[in-house]
């Protein structure tokens, strides 16, 4: 696939930002643990308010663990991601100390860690696809996530299989999406609704 047919940068940036996208067609080829560890290592170095590093990643590679993840994903996601060889649940600690004081930056920092992880996956020849379509309560229960943590997303990780089996609806969606120009979300001096 020629990414440039779908995406072009308006200003000079490293090509990794353009090449990273979220396919749905996964190969069943196993993801090597060393590569997964490199993804988590990249996330480790994300910026973090007061160095609290609130992110937590729960991964699944075995058939048994993958079935647990599939049990709380919404059916529309299960349809295309059931062949993904690895899943990661992304959660963050909402408190910053034993007293339970809130960490107001936990989602911001954890989102940055996910961004680092996804770019490293691309660099490692892997694809990632983040999902918000899942039962959060059931996921917290199944994965034993404590109350002081929020769960944000489930990520499918693996190798791309452009000839993979997808429904007609998902085949139509299997193209890199473009992005708004920066003028739509960058404002000088004050916010402008538009």
UniProtKB/TrEMBL annotation:
Superkingdom, natural source: Bacteria
UniProt domain Nitroreductase: residue ranges: 19-75
UniProt keyword annotation of Oxidoreductase present: yes
GO terms for MF: oxidoreductase activity
Pfam families xrefs: Nitroreductase (PF00881)
Keyword terms: Oxidoreductase
Coiled-coil region list: none
SUPFAM superfamilies: FMN-dependent nitroreductase-like (SSF55469)
InterPro entries tied to this protein: Nitroreductase, Nitroreductase-like
PANTHER family according to UniProt: NAD(P)H NITROREDUCTASE YDGI-RELATED, NADH DEHYDROGENASE_NAD(P)H NITROREDUCTASE XCC3605-RELATED
Similarity comment: Belongs to the nitroreductase family.
Protein name: Nitroreductase
Originating organism: Pseudogracilibacillus auburnensis
């Amino acid at each position: 696939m020629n990414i440039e047919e779908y995406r072009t940068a308006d200003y000079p940036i490293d090509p990794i930002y353009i090449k990273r996208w979220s396919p749905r067609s996964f190969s069943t080829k196993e993801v090597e643990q060393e590569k997964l560890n490199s993804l988590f290592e990249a996330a480790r170095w994300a910026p973090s308010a007061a160095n609290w590093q609130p992110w937590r990643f729960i991964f699944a590679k075995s058939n048994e663990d993958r079935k647990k993840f599939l049990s709380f994903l919404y059916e529309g996601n299960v349809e295309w991601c059931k062949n993904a060889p690895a899943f990661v649940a992304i959660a963050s600690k909402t408190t910053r100390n034993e007293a339970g004081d809130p960490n107001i930056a936990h989602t911001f920092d954890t989102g940055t860690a996910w961004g680092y992880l996804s770019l490293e996956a691309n660099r490692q020849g892997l694809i990632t696809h983040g999902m918000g379509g899942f039962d959060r309560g059931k996921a917290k229960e199944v994965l034993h996530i404590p109350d002081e943590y929020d769960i944000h997303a489930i990520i499918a990780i693996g190798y791309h299989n452009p000839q993979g089996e997808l429904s007609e609806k998902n085949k139509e969606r299997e193209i890199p999406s473009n992005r708004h120009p920066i003028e739509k979300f960058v404002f000088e001096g004050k916010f402008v609704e538009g």
